[in-house]
Amino acid sequence: MRYLIEILLPVGNDAQPVLTDVRAKLTETFGGVTMHINAPAEGLWVNGGDIDRDTIVVVEVMTEDLDPAWWASYRKDLEDRLDQEEIVIRASEIQRL
Fold first, then answer.
1. Cα–Cα distance between 71 and 43 in angstroms, integer?
2. C-alpha distances in angstroms, 83 versus 29, 30, 66, 71, 93?
3. Backbone angles phi, psi at 93, to 5 degrees
4. Chain-wide mean pLDDT for the chain?
5. Is pLDDT above 90 for 5?
6. Can you tell me the mean pLDDT for 66-82?
7. 84: DSSP letter
């Protein structure tokens, strides 16, 4: 079984050091990473009647082993470093064609 892990990483003006660290950590741990930096997405949500926005970089990793505890710990670290209430990390089973 192979998995595609996606991190929806909110970035601001001060996120470059975190992006550099994410790139290094995931490349070292999983042998590679794809970061959609030049085409960031926009995240919108309602917060107390106002609409909040984040610029989102999608980070992708493929792996044969899914370790939910490792990813939960990594997510918590990213949330703390980026001062975010929640960062979405999701996994999908994939078949390489």
1. 21
2. 24, 25, 26, 18, 30
3. -75, 140
4. 90
5. yes
6. 96
7. -
Helix (H) or strand (E) holding 66: none
pLDDT at 75: 97
Return the CATH number at 43. Answer: 3.30.70.120
Number of structural domains, the chain?
1
pLDDT on residue 41: 75
- Cβ neighbours of residue 91 under 8 Å, at least 6 residues apart? 3, 4, 5, 6, 66, 71
- Render pLDDT for 23-50 as a digit per residue (tens, 0 to 9): 999 999 999 999 998 777 777 778 888 8
Per-residue exposure over 52-79, b if at least 16 CB sit within 10 Å of its own CB, e if not: eebebbebebebeeeeeeebeebbeebe
Domain that includes residue 7, residue range = 2-94
